[in-house]
């Protein structure tokens, strides 16, 4: 009898609790890879390429083509407070210098007014040179006004 049974591989985006059952699709906010026996939600600071929002938003990854069955770390200069939503870009005057951030942080007051620095993330690196009052940072070095 077993000779006639066809065993199917459980596809990505589904879970298969038993080999003899049809694959069951994951909920929209969940992910799974091939041969998974359960679906799971992404952790905070991570997001899935296809999410369960009512708009059916497809998140395009910043660095490469998305795979809808995986969780990805939130990219730099983005926040991922809700794994069901696409990464949110940090607004001007804020930054996220680590991957998998769940929120953006305010730039230092001096830093947000620095010229020739394009992102606050760069400004965070520039803060370590400890410019004194009346100095500015054109390219990671302090120059007198």
Automatic annotation (TrEMBL):
InterPro entries: Growth_fac_rcpt_cys_sf, TNFR/NGFR_Cys_rich_reg. It comes from the Eukaryota. Residues 90-131 form the TNFR-Cys domain. PROSITE patterns: TNFR_NGFR_1 (PS00652). This is TNFR-Cys domain-containing protein.
